[in-house]
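Progress note, sequence design subtask.
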């Protein structure tokens, strides 16, 4: 399983030092990927955890003030990068076209894109699947079949993010199954509202290759409980 920790814009310099020291003690058979705030990437030193970025520029190196390119990420040994997170789509007006450019740029540098998709409001299942299919087809259409397979898909219903609760596993599975039908070879994660408690149900899904954790990533004790529950 791949477990992605999305710290978002959290942790000061001192807090991150403490946080890394706690994370360094974690032993797990799963692949844990930490996506810290970009300001901490240069200080990442963990050997038991992979490094991811929360964002990347859609452009290559050059005159793009405030941006960080995929080549720069690669030079800091970043292995994964989130793209299309709903907070970026909403707060920064990131379109599917921009997301598709980011994915292309990352693949050129051999950084694995983790493409976040998800419906904004709680919809009936058919509408949800339609929304997701559109997000997938528009963001991946420029890729070859080989490139497509390298993209990890993270299904995150927008309305569940930060709420500490998810839909019924039956509903989630219905949606995941539809994603697997279009992208049978891609790794598939679920995120949005995951807690150390609801993982008990989520882990029953037969479609999942891992999880994307936001709030839970910031509380090491809860994260440890999550891992214990997952490994039971
Ligand atoms: P959450 O966030 O776990 O706090 O719901 C997940 C995410 O935004 O990736």
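Output:
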């Amino acid at each position: 399983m791949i477990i992605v920790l999305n710290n978002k814009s959290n942790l000061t310099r001192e807090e991150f030092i403490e946080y890394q020291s706690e994370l360094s003690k974690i032993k797990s058979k799963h692949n844990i990927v930490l996506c810290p705030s970009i300001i901490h990437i240069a200080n990442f030193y963990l050997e038991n955890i992979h490094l991811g970025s929360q964002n990347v520029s859609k452009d290559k190196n050059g005159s793009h003030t405030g941006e960080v390119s995929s080549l720069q990420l690669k030079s800091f040994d970043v292995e994964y990068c989130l793209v299309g997170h709903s907070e970026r789509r909403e707060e920064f007006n990131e379109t599917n076209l921009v997301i598709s450019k980011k994915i292309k740029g990352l693949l050129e540098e051999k950084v694995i894109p983790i493409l976040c998709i998800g419906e904004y409001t709680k919809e009936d299942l058919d509408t949800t699947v339609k929304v997701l299919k559109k997000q997938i087809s528009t963001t991946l259409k420029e890729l070859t079949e080989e490139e497509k397979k390298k993209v990890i898909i993270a299904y995150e219903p927008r309305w569940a993010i930060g709420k500490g609760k998810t839909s019924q596993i039956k509903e989630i599975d219905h949606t995941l199954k539809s994603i697997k039908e279009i992208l049978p070879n891609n790794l598939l994660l679920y995120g949005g509202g995951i807690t150390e408690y609801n993982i008990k149900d989520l882990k029953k899904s037969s479609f999942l290759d891992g999880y994307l954790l936001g709030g839970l990533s910031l509380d090491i004790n809860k994260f440890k409980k999550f891992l214990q529950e997952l490994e039971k």
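Residues 5 and 213 are 5 Å apart (CA to CA). Work on this subtask will continue into the next period as scheduled.
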